[in-house]
Write the structure tokens for this entry.
Amino acid sequence: MRSNALHAIALAFFLIAVGASVFMIKAVRFGYPLQPGVTASVWTIEVFLDFMAKDEPARIDLHIPTTDAARDLAGEEFYNGSFGLNLTSDRATGNRKAVWAYRFPSNRKVLRYSAETRGETQSTRLPDWFAEPAPRATPFEADPVKRQAFIVWSASLRRRSADDATFADLMLREIFGGPGDRGEDADEQAVLLKELPAPLDRLELARETLAAQGLQARIANGVRLVEDVRRAETIHWLEYRVGGEDRRFFPGGAPSRFLTIWRGAEGLVSANGVSELDLQIAISSERSSAAALAQRAGAEAAPVSRLFSFGDLPLTTQLVYKTLVTIPVGIALLVFLRQFVGVQTLGTFMPVLIGIAFRETALLNGVILFSTLIALGLAVRFYLERLQLLLVPRLAVVLIFIVIAMAGITILMTDNNQAIGLSISLFPMVIITMTIERMSILWEEASAGEAIRQGLGSLVVASLAYLVMSNAHVEYLMYNFPELLFILMGICVLMGRYTGLRLSEVWRFRQLARA
Amino acid sequence: MLNAWRKLREKGVIGVNQRNLDFVAARNPRRLLHRVDDKVETKRLAEIAEIPNPELYGVIRDGRDARSLADLLDRADGCVIKPARGSQGKGILVIDGPLQGGWRLANGRRVRLDDVRHHVNSILSGMYSLGGQPDAAIIEYRVKFDPVFGRICFKGVPDIRVIVLKGVPAFAMLRLPTAESDGKANLHRGGVGVGVSVIDGTTRTGMQFDRPIRHHPDTGEALAGLAVPHWDDILQIAARAYDVSELGYLGVDIVLDREQGPLLLELNARPGLSIQIANQLGMRAHLRAIDALDVEYASADMRVRLARRAFEKSFGEKGLGDGADSGSAPDGARARPVLGVVEGGLAGAAA
């Protein structure tokens, strides 16, 4: 007996541990929101490439967004036409490229890439290796003139700053500020700028200056995430780390949300063998449930969250499970009410089934309907008692009467434009029939009071079960975190080993407690 | 409420959860339950072991048997019709004797053959059995009420419930019908439960509807201090019921017949917990004490002796009797003389 108890408790904790760990993985690691109705803007970014092919081998390299886990890139799609697609990635920079190639394309061609993202903000963390000190690099080794200019300028900056942070601030102000901010070394700066399109030239200078100080820095390129834009421009910024802090410097002012597409000073696209290349980046935003996005991103990231989700099922099946997974919550509540409180009900799980039926009718209508049908059915049942019928035929008569009564109520209510009439369809008549039978036997064998007491107990439990099962939070949590079923199972195992008194028994034996 | 909960825990009052888990599930293997759930089987086993029980007149298993119903019912002494797998006294029809082409019931109503046949058919279709399983109807000897309980009994037949753990009688209770319970001894219908000392069978405190009482609600007689006659035989029957049922936790129901003495009425694998209120005792400590005894090879006689000793050890010489002033009495002797039968008079008064 002791070992039974231990076994049961071990099993319960195992189940709870399994459920809780999967839950934590999903909630913490993949950021599944714990509240229903949390919506996040989801941006769809689409890159269109439109060009004329020249009947010669063509190759188009396009930077596509880097996939860092924190970025939650989901639903990547490529439209290749007749082109061959090859994805390459660069481990050092994290850049990814889509390489489209075709031997002899002709006419106008279109290539397309699209993905969904929640984007990044200023507070999105930079990779961990950014925290490590960078090797000091001395730029402009080859050119003594530039080298001299750089030394003069950086020495001047160092003189006028206290530490790395103030150095970086001052340097960025001098490079990107207006003419008044350029300071006394404007000539040196002008010499140092490379032949790159603005603002990449200045960003590159800033990066080199920081690198010479042994600070991690890199140029990042991407797009602003704003409401729908047909042609988004790429923006460029500097990511660096100073004083233990991740920073981003946006020359044109910081956007609230953005998406990093690639890093480095290269262009977004490079093409060979085509002409009239037109590149268009379209951004559209859509408010969608954050859970759905987490699910989409998570499915790619980890098999565990895919295993514990209904996202891959057909939509109709998903809807069934949305209801189905809440039933165990009602069942667990029923177990608690029976084993700990001692509520008496007609039939074991009957109240939960009634509670499910209330989903169709809403609570008040359901209670009224249920009580009415039970009362009518009991009347018929007592009348049939006098006819002395056998059990099964008698049950059949009551059941048929219930269907007639339901039909009557529906017609009556629909005539009066009451919604109750229409919601009745799935009200479980077999359960009602069995309830009537049990109640009438109880009525005869015990007492009317006992029958009504248990009937009311069933109704209360059914209502509570309905309230719990139809709760938006519960439904949301159970549907998005089906692993909670293991926790419920564990709790039920634990409740199955409860040998203490029920609340009703404390009341029953209260006089013994006083003595 | 929490305070009461803690106090009851201290007193060792056990609830349904613990009864089901630690006693019923742990000691009553499912494969043996049919021995007590099916009264035909119980009677067969009792017959083999020569445990006295009400004589079986007939078993009706299907509609064809029901045709011979009239012959079975025609007895001057009456009979009892009950479902073989009934519980809590449901579906029991007590027939007093023939009356004007029909029969008179214990409650005075007259029934005709059609009524009885319908009742039997209800039993057969499983209306009173657990889970609505098809059932059989038993027709058996109607116990003749022993006048010994006349003053504390209203109509109907009182019975004695003994809780038996591993074959050792642990607790006992006398169940008395009242006007409220319609002549049935079932506690949940308003029957009175009176705690009985296992040592000598003297009655102690009483209860009705889970509330302690000192006097019978209908006759007004004090409940404590009576001696249940044939106490040795009753303990013997209780102990031997374990041998035939092999259930480690058993409720044994025994009736006292005027002519035949104690008879085994039925066995229960899930006896109720009201016996704790009737005795004003929590059961846990005493059940644990009996559980600690080694009784594997003990005979019924030995187990009865062990039961008395254990009860004394747990609750003192007089079993904590609430007014059990006359101490232990030999078999049949009464602590307080009980006179006459008041059944008829009170039945009339109640009607």
Remarks:
- The CA atoms of residues 46 and 244 of chain B lie 7 Å apart.
- DSSP finds eleven helices and 13 strands in chain B.
- The interface with chain A takes residues 1, 3-5, 7-9, 11, 13-18, 21-22, 26, 88, 90-91, 114, 118, 121-122, 125-128, 132, 188-189, 210-212, 273, 276-277, 280, 282 of chain B (CB under 8 Å).
- The first strand of chain B starts at residue 56 and ends at 60.
